[in-house]
Specification:
Elements lengths: L30 H4 L12 H19 L9 H25 L4 H29 L9 H8 L3 H6 L16 H23 L2 H22 L5 H6 L1 H20 L5 H27 L8 H27 L4 H6 L2 H9 L1 H17 L6 H28 L14
Length: 407
């Protein structure tokens, strides 16, 4: 799970890969955002999404401390995937609409500065505890730290056919960061190719088609021994990220006065609360990572897409109906501030904290103790590590300059 920093309007555009002309043809770029007339207008932060991040990371924390309470709490990671796909694609489309290209190197630089320093801090602490203490929760954590720093935990976990080993130890939860980072590496490249050589409508259709491919691939792969492969693979979870990307493309394509946007807004408002209720029901009753017989087969084939659709409905509703009841609830200041600034740190630190407290023999009060210590570590991470690098991420890289499109 990764948290996005800043809005598209606050980021430097860097060097423009597409130039000011349309697809290198020598003709002026098409009007109205190069086929995405609402891309720039819809590029700011959405407070409700930050609040949704807070709820999701809280579910993950409870799930790892007390899985009997929320056996399906890992579904929150699926929600994070869809949010990430939406936000990243929206930023890329906004840059394309403004400049006619996507500056990939500055994009990857911003991603690195946003995600990696805090992750390396967690890896370093786990490695130090491994070599300086007898805590069983951090035994042999050096390989885990290396795999996590390279975003390869999901690859290792996908290759384990039986029960998970302890190779990834206190950093096993960073498998989801591996999925997201591998998606961040590939999707901007694929989107840039589509933007340069296809019409905007074709970009939308291709994104929708790509959402279906992981479902077919999961059905082809399915076997009880392939559960870890499906759960941890970037290729087998890509539809959840692409569902968010599809929402971003659709909304960027529709003008503010398009009647289809009014229909989409109305249906998103009607379906938002039922979608949230179904996700809550899954978290409460569905043992996602346990053997649930036929339910497991359904979940590991079409279930991931089902959750992606529910998450996409929430994202669309929060984007299109900022004055709705759900948006107002999730936009409460404590929720939005926590989601914007601490959700990434909470996710990074909660599992090592669980292992630390368990290694110290704590049983009673484990959940509140984990929540308090995790929040303290997330605050420390934000102010000491993340915020300084975020300020660097918002500045242009040395040697680059923002270039305005030619008239």
């Amino acid at each position: 799970m990764a948290q996005e920093a800043g809005s598209a309007t606050a980021e430097d555009s860097g060097l423009d890969t597409g130039g000011a002309e349309s697809r290198g043809s020598g003709r002026p770029a098409p009007p109205e955002g190069r086929g995405f007339p609402s891309a720039v207008a819809r590029s700011g932060r959405v407070g409700g999404l930050d609040g949704l991040r807070t709820l999701a990371v809280a579910l993950v924390l409870v799930y790892h401390v007390a899985p009997d309470v929320l056996p399906g709490g890992s579904v929150a990671v699926d929600v994070f995937f869809t949010i990430s796909g939406f936000v990243i694609t929206r930023l890329l489309l906004a840059e394309y609409a403004r400049t006619g290209g996507v500056a990939l190197l500055p994009f990857y630089r911003r991603r690195w500065l946003r995600l990696v320093p805090a992750l390396l801090a967690v890896c370093a602490v786990c490695a130090v505890l491994s070599v300086t203490t007898p805590l069983w929760g951090f035994d042999d954590s050096l390989p885990a730290a290396g795999l996590s720093a390279l975003f390869l935990v999901n690859v290792v976990r996908a290759a384990e056919p039986g029960p998970y080993g302890d190779l990834t130890g206190p950093l096993a939860h960073t498998w989801s960061l591996g999925v997201e980072e591998q998606f961040y590496l590939l999707w901007p490249l694929a989107l840039l190719v589509l933007l340069r050589y296809a019409r905007a409508r074709t970009v939308l259709l291709c994104t929708a088609a790509l959402c279906a491919l992981p479902v077919l691939w999961r059905c082809a792969l399915w076997h009880p021994d392939a559960a870890h492969r499906i759960y941890n693979g970037t290729d087998t979870r890509a539809d959840q990220l692409l569902a968010g990307a599809l929402v971003a493309v659709v909304l960027a394509r529709l003008r503010a006065d398009d009647p289809r946007l009014a229909v989409l807004r109305a249906w998103a408002g009607r379906l938002a609360w039922p979608a949230l209720g179904l996700l809550a029901l899954v978290a409460w009753r569905m043992p996602v990572t346990a053997d649930a017989g036929p339910w497991t087969v359904a979940w590991y084939t079409v279930g991931f897409l089902f959750v992606a659709v529910l998450s996409a409905v929430l994202v669309a509703a929060l984007e299109l109906r900022p004055g709705g009841g759900l948006s107002r609830l999730l936009s409460l200041t404590p929720l939005t501030w926590t989601g914007r600034n601490l959700s990434y740190g909470v996710y990074l630190w909660h599992y090592p904290v669980v292992r630390l407290l368990a290694s110290l023999g704590m049983r009673d009060g484990l959940l509140p103790a984990t929540a308090v210590l995790t929040l303290l570590m997330a605050l420390l991470s934000y102010y000491v590590v993340e915020a300084p690098f975020l300020r660097r991420a918002r500045r242009p890289a040395p040697g680059t300059a923002a270039r305005q499109p030619a008239a």
